[in-house]
Design a protein that fits this description.
10-stranded mixed sheet, single chain
C-alpha cells in the first residue's frame, strides 16, 4: 500500500466472542527488544524476583506468548529478527548484517513509514569486546541508514565505550559522542519519546516504526539512577544491581506507552516486546510456584532461548489473551509486513511465518516447530543446530529430549525405544530438519 493515508476499515471482527472495530490498516509499530531478558523475569510469566508492573500491564492489554524462542546470543537473534531468515543463510561474522540483506525497516520505509531506531546496533561490525585494547574490526555490515532507518541514536555503532553511565552514543549523521554524567537508557528513551511526539505533531498522517533495541539488562550489572549506587561508582559491576536494571526496563516501557496514550495514538499503534536471548549466566530468578530458573544465556536450553513476547494493540487485539503458538525470530519480518501492508521481498527465501492471525484472533500459530542453526563465531561458545516443538527437541547430532520433563536436557532419550507422542515428534522433527537444513 503506497502513500501515507490511514484508512479505517468498517469490517467488524469477532475476537473470541468479543466484537471489536478493526483498527487502521496501517498502524504505527513500536518494537522493544530487551537485551538479555528471559521470560521468567516478568511477573506476567509468573516471575516474582523483579518489579515489572508496566510490562505486566502491557501483557494484560493484549497477547502473551508462552512459546517464543530466540537464539542463545544476541547477534544471531538480531540478524534473524531483522531479515526474517535463518542464520545459515546470511550469518557471516559476529555483529555483522551483510550488505545485501533486506530488513523489516527497509520494507516499512518503502511502504511509506517513517522509521526510527534507538539503542544497541551491533550490525555494522564490532569492536573486539573480549579484548578491550584490541583493534576494531572492518566495517563489513550495514549502517542504520543502509538498514532502512531515517533517524537513530545508537550505542555500539562502531565506537567503543559504555552503554550506561557516561555512554558513548552516535546520532543521525554524527560522530560518536561521550555523554559525561548521563545514563544511556535515559538518553535513548528520550530519543524515542521525542520521535513519537514529533511524528504525532508534525506528520500525523504518516505511520511510523520505532525499533527500540534496548541496551538494558546486559552486563555490566551497573547502578541505575534510581538506586544509591549511582552516587558512588557508577561503573560498578555487581549482580545485585540486576533487579534495579529490570525495574528500569519496566519504567522505560511504561514511559513510552504513556507517550503513545498522551498523543492519542495508542489504539493506532501495535506494541511488541521481546528479548534477544535468555537471562545472563549467574542470575537465578524465581517463579510464583517456587521454581528456580537459572539464566542460561549462550546455551541452547530453554533458559538460554525462551523469551517473553508481548503484543498489544487496543481495539484490535483482545486483552488478556495467552497463546501457546510457536514463534521464532524469523517471524517478525513477515508479521510486520502483513500488518503494515509492506511487500515481502520475492528474490530470497524468507523463513518466517506471520503471527498476525494469532494477534487478531483470526487463526492459530502457523508453526509446528522452530529451528536454530547457532554458529555465533564468538570465542568459547559452541556451535549447535536443533529443531523443536513445544515439548520435544531434536539436535542435528541426533540427541533428542523431552523438554516438558527434562528442561535441563540432562537425559537423552533412546530414539530406538520411542513410542507414542515421542516417536511421532521424532519423526516429524527429523523430516522438518532435513527440509529446512538439508546439509
Amino acid at each position: 500500500m503506497a502513500g501515507y493515508g490511514r484508512l479505517w476499515c468498517a469490517v467488524v471482527v469477532i475476537l473470541g466472542g468479543i466484537v471489536a472495530q478493526a483498527a487502521p490498516d496501517r498502524p504505527n509499530v513500536v518494537l522493544f527488544l530487551v537485551d538479555d531478558l528471559g521470560y521468567e523475569a516478568l511477573g506476567a510469566y509468573g516471575g516474582v524476583s523483579y518489579e515489572t508492573p508496566a510490562l505486566d500491564r502491557l501483557a494484560a492489554s493484549g497477547v502473551r506468548f508462552t512459546h517464543a524462542y530466540a537464539t542463545p546470543l544476541c547477534a544471531p537473534s538480531r540478524l534473524q529478527l531483522m531479515t526474517g531468515r535463518y542464520t545459515h543463510r546470511n550469518y557471516t561474522e559476529w555483529g555483522v548484517l551483510p550488505k545485501d540483506e533486506i530488513t523489516f525497516a527497509n520494507l516499512l520505509r518503502d511502504a511509506g513509514y517513517a522509521t526510527y531506531v534507538a539503542g544497541k546496533w551491533q550490525l555494522w561490525g564490532h569492536t573486539l569486546i573480549w579484548d578491550p585494547d584490541g583493534p576494531c574490526c572492518p566495517r563489513q555490515g550495514q549502517t542504520p541508514t543502509d538498514a532502512g532507518f531515517d533517524e537513530y541514536l545508537l550505542w555500539y555503532l562502531g565506537a567503543k565505550g559504555g552503554r550506561y553511565a557516561d555512554p558513548v552514543l552516535t546520532g543521525t549523521g554524527e560522530e560518536a559522542e561521550t555523554h559525561e554524567g548521563a545514563y544511556g537508557p535515559d538518553l535513548l528513551s528520550d530519543f524515542v519519546v521525542d520521535a513519537i511526539e514529533r511524528q504525532a505533531a508534525e506528520r500525523p498522517e504518516q505511520p511510523f516504526l520505532v525499533y527500540y533495541s534496548m541496551v538494558l539488562v546486559h552486563a555490566p550489572f551497573a547502578p541505575t539512577p534510581d538506586g544509591p549506587g549511582w552516587r558512588g561508582d557508577r561503573h560498578a559491576n555487581d549482580t545485585t544491581h540486576f533487579p534495579a536494571m529490570v525495574a528500569y526496563v519496566d519504567r522505560i516501557v511504561g514511559r513510552v506507552v504513556a507517550t503513545l496514550e498522551a498523543q492519542g495514538i495508542r489504539e493506532e499503534t501495535l506494541v511488541l516486546l521481546t528479548g534477544d536471548n535468555g537471562t545472563p549466566l549467574g542470575i537465578e530468578s524465581a517463579l510464583a510456584d517456587g521454581t528456580r530458573v537459572p539464566g542460561e544465556k549462550s546455551r541452547p536450553t530453554d533458559g538460554g532461548t525462551r523469551v517473553p513476547l508481548l503484543a498489544s494493540w487496543p481495539g484490535t487485539i483482545r486483552a488478556g489473551r495467552v497463546s501457546d503458538a510457536l514463534v521464532d525470530f524469523t517471524d517478525f519480518l513477515p508479521s510486520l509486513a502483513e500488518v503494515t501492508g509492506a511487500a515481502v521481498p520475492e528474490d530470497r527465501t524468507i523463513d518466517g511465518r506471520s503471527f498476525v492471525p494469532v494477534l487478531t484472533g483470526a487463526g492459530e500459530g502457523a508453526r509446528e516447530w522452530v529451528f536454530t542453526d547457532f554458529r555465533p563465531r564468538f570465542p568459547g561458545v559452541p556451535e549447535v543446530t536443533y529443531i523443536r516443538d513445544r515439548r520435544f527437541k531434536l539436535y542435528a547430532d541426533g540427541r533428542f529430549f523431552d523438554i516438558e520433563t527434562d528442561v535441563a536436557e540432562a537425559m537423552t532419550l533412546d530414539v530406538d525405544a520411542l513410542s507414542g507422542p515421542a516417536a511421532m515428534a521424532h519423526s516429524a522433527l527429523g523430516q522438518a530438519l532435513r527440509e529446512v537444513y538439508p546439509d
